[in-house]
Amino acid sequence: MSSVRLSVIVPMYNEEANLPELHARLVRALGRLEMTSEIVYVDDGSTDGTVAELEAILQNPQPVCVHAVHLPQRRGKTGALSAGFAVARGAIFVTTDADLQEPPEILPMLIGRIDSGEADVAVAWRQQRQDTAFRVMASRLFNASMRWLTGISLHDVNCGTKALRPEVAEKLQGWLRSDMHRYLPVLAARMGYRIVEVPVPHVPRRRGRSRFGASRYLRALLDFLPVSLMWWRGWMVWLGLAVLSILSLRFHPIAGGIGLAFAIGWLAVAMLFYLRRNST
Ligand code: UDP
Ligand code: MG
Question: What domain range is 250 assigned to?
């Protein structure tokens, strides 16, 4: 059995500007914990100087064990996390973003909730979000939909900073494709794991910009299809839409036709998307 107690997994796509400060602060924060720790940096096919920064870290002696995983091509945050989970050896996993929006100093709060045996997944709940008004609104809508769908009272399902037991990551492995990292806490809850939320401060991204474009919203919607079918309310939504479209075909062929075409198109796009993502 591995003697490593804690693995911190950081997915990174073009984060050369953030890596030196992130590493220094992470090492300090981990040094204050009485746990043998390792950091797993996953370079998600970066095209900037991230790899060079990582090499520089690896060439110097470090107070914690540092691993670097290099993905030859960009696989997205979910793919990078999945690669990190595969090499992490700790008895507790922590994921966090490289952009320092959730300060590394808060990690012990999440770790404590898992270490005490109280929960299987601890999700950071960002207080006073420091993102654009549009993103905050989209996030509120997303979280409200998740609460309605799942009946689980979570406020920040998609925060990148989480602590979890390795067995949760293992059980979720089959779901870790596309951009499914967004749904990780609700999927874990569906599998019967205990989830807690931990309020944390949030700061604006200091360097670089968000690595997700507007396509994040389309991906979130496409991923919502299989996720929603894990709950009866999800089935009700899709069946309701299909029945409505078929009924309106009778009364209003154009509107009904559009509805049906939309439903079939939606399914086809989702299928193609998954086939493409799974083949990479
Ligand atoms: N990331 C990644 N691959 C991607 C997109 C993002 O590894 O294709 C990493 C990114 O470098 C960061 C984390 O995932 O460490 C979250 O990304 P970002 O901060 O851009 O997301 P946002 O805060 O805008 O949701
Ligand atoms: Mg961020």
Answer: 231-278
